[in-house]
Task: structure prediction
Amino acid sequence: MIDAVKLREHIYDVVGAIHQVHKVLGAGLNESCYQEGLQIELTQKNIPFKREVSFHPTYQGLKMEATFRIDFICKEDIIVECKSVPKLIGDHRAQLFNYMRLLKLPCGILVSFMPQYAEIERYFYDEEKRSIVPANRMVYGHRTKSIEN
Result:
């Protein structure tokens, strides 16, 4: 079972860094500008992270040649995917969900910096149930709705 309270606390300062980047840079720049800004902000806030992390998925325990690249992994268990699009759509969510599932990381943040106010979505991955749970659908550690993978 996902401990939603613990995970929300864990991602709080990462979301704060995202808000600060949007506040300073504003809306409408390209994705790479926001990624660089977030890298600077995470460094200044002493939040551990890796940027542009590449990985190979596995199939039946064998490493595949396909390569994926994640924008950020923060605190070793939070995937952050940055976009600069007018509105986040299902394809963006699917990309984040696949990364979470393939790497078995419990937290995912999807952000679009393009709108006037940054659009930020937070998700949790329940490895045991193999489901993605939107953070806003978690109530006192219980799921109200999940997105099955």
